[in-house]
Amino acid sequence: MIHFTTSLRRCWLAACFAASLPLLAQEPSTAADAAAETVASAEAAPAVPTAFPDVLRALGGASLSERSALLDALLAAKHPNTAAVLQAWLEDHLHVRDADGAVFITAETDAGYALTDPATLATSGPEPADGFSKVGSNNSLRKLLRSALASFTLGSPDAEVRLSAVKEMLRAPDESTLNVLRERRAIETDAAVQAAIDAGLAYADLTSDNADTRLAAVNVLSGSLAGETIAKLEALRDPANEPDERVRSAAAVAISSISLKRSLYSGIETLFFGLSLGSVLVLAAIGLAITFGVMGVINMAHGELMMIGAYTAYVVQLLLPNHLTASILISIPAAFLVSGLVGIAIERGVVKHLYGRPLETLLATFGISLILQQLVRSIFSPLNRSVATPEFMSGQWVINDALSLTWNRLYIVLFTLVVFAALQLILRRTSLGLTVRAVSQNRAMARSMGINSDRVDAITFGLGSGIAGVAGVALSQLTNVGPNLGQSYIIDSFMVVVFGGVGNLWGTLIGGMTLGVAGKLLEPAVGAVMAKIAMLVFIILFIQRRKQGLFPQKGRAAEGH
Amino acid sequence: MKSQSLLLSALKADRGGQVLLGLLAIAAVAVPVFNLLVPEGSFFHLSTYTVTLFGKYLCYALLAIAVDLVWGYCGILSLGHTAFFALGGYAIGMYLMRQIGPRGVYGDPILPDFMVFLNWKELPWFWEGMNHFPVALLMVVLIPGLLALGFGWLAFRSRVTGVYLSIMTQALTFALLLAFFRNEMGFGGNNGLTDFKELLGFDLKTPGMRVALFLTTVSALAIGYIGCRYVIASRLGRVVQAVRDAEGRTRFIGYQVESYKLWIWVFSAMLAGIAGALYVPQVGIINPGEFAPINSIEVVIWVAVGGRGTLYGAVAGAVLVNYAKTWFTAAFPEIWLYALGALFVVATLFLPKGVVGLIPSRKEKLA
After folding, report:
1. The model's pTM
2. Closest C-alpha among B86, B50, B89, B84 to residue B196
3. What are the extents of the domains in chain B?
4. Which of A353, A368, A537 lies closest to B175 in CB terms?
5. A358 CB near a chain B CB, below 8 Å?
6. CB of A346 within 8 Å of any CB in chain B?
């Protein structure tokens, strides 16, 4: 799934890039046309042609070593189609017709090459590929080509395109690219691009002979967050590399300030990972908090109800393969219904007969979980399935060099909060919620007030199961969907409910988030598995101290449990 | 004298137990005869594979008795008893690993293969002494016993009961599962301990050794059964049953409920450890998969199917369900999980007393 979407994105970017090229090429050319021509005629060596068509023609016959000089000439000619030619050259789509030495931008077709004249962009019919030879390039030429293309792209109206162009140019900067960047910096308006150019120029200044220039560069870089900056500054602390004491101490100060900021951001990142892990736990546990917490029923098939929700998302996506976003939005209510109905069937068929015998309920529902798993294996095969992520949920939200958050995790956190709020509303503000709470607090009294406790039981169980299904949809966006999906969450979810305090949704929310964050905080120190073990042991010990969990129930409601 | 008469009268009243012990005695004679004396190829020949299979079932039966003792008589539903079973198995597995000596793939005289593979230079401290059989035997009961003591002391003292306790036992075995998967633990990680050669100098693969292991298992089961029967008939057993039926009331009368529960819990864990120690030499491998929570839950269903709170029902359930598992997974592998799942539901809904509850008791017959 991940491979699929990233490659899609890549294609999309490439397409945009290519489409914008001819447009971009015109911008620098119009402004500087006249000047360029005078400069070119004054400076060019006699051997190198200057006019665009002549340069191209010369390019066809030139050797690899001559071509770099011709590339300069091509750039100096400032023809509007230069970028298209460079792009074609870079991608090996520039060919010479052997018969007359004319150069064309080619596109492969079944019948040979479709030709585009670089000077006019007029296309002509396909000709057999035999009659052409490629205008080749080598590594150093390709580097020049990329950098030249990037400087064309610098004029793009899209800040993101400019940013990637700057990054491309800074990969191997030389004096000419730095000059281009300095010019651009003067007129650049976008903050991110400005920062990228500043950092790049400052990197270059670090190697300057002038100590003041270096010092200024260090001061500029002290505002940066990139890990690369630290490495570069680290080299300056060594007296062997850096003779000037001021620069050395400035570098040391800059490093400590950058490290501090980076560790702050990585702390925020860990917190975010913890919250997103906690959200998954809460989502998995919150349905259980209803069936176990409110009704007192142990439902070991809860994980399988999540699995059913995840498979519902998978099936909906199979039915609507071309509408990813819509299929996800549809699968949320669909999964709620499917899992809810399965849950009601379980309640009516089995759990109803076992009220008051929690251990037996545990065993029977465990049996149901085995049956559901095997059912899914029989229907969908035991192999894992993947549910594609819609565009708006994939990728990252890059906040700065040190901090980027993945969209899908961010959405999971939001989604969890929405589900939680909705559930609280149902339980606190609707008549259904009122009856559910009444029955869970005192069944006999509720019945004597005319509440049909059988019906309430079924609906409550259905509600908890439906929430499990919704959680399954969320999980399908994080992991693969398989028959064992639910099993891996069941122990965790019980831990969250017990830790938070049975019968208390707030406890489940805070308990789940706490466990998620604590787990992620422990992880770097002891590793993922040990962190998990530590959490389990912690909960086992915690329950000894506070049997009722973080938020014990108070008053009469507590007596039932 | 008093305790002897107590045991005798308990056994006299225990018709199911008499049948069970009788069957065990028959098996102890018949299995060696049909395996070793009847020539191979004869219709009556019992293959060594079958002997080992029976031995495996009886190990499970011993584990089931351990679970029934705490669940059926004390009301503690343990969903983590295979943790004790696996720990016992690991203890004997360590001894068997040390017995391999220089015959391992890497030929290191001291270090087991997986440690050489991990580039370890010396034996971890907890592997010291495990080359002595008595030490290993001690560990088989000591390690599960200590774990149960620690866990039970914490849990019972703070009065964690019912489903909470069940879920915590499950968390316990889950934590151990994760821990034992780690190579750094020093128990062979994912692959566990295997490739055993011999026990006490006898080759594990010979039919004679297989039969000897089977006979050991039969005697262990018989002794375990009688031991449990005795514990239940004793004063402690009566208090424990009172705790099961009315924990609060027992406490009010003045019994220290926690100590009684703890005692029977630790005893049960040790039994499970012994079952694991008998299991590992027969199947030839122990890996972290044995800790999986689902295994523990399966043990509970053997007890439920057989008939909880009877001991012999646990044995019947363990053998029946595992026989069915062997048969189903060979004949209809697809259907086994359906059958097992249905068994859980049917046993809890329709067979509250298990299959042994279907046999009419003497009283009912008389009436």
Report:
1. 0.74
2. B89
3. 2-297
4. A537
5. yes
6. no
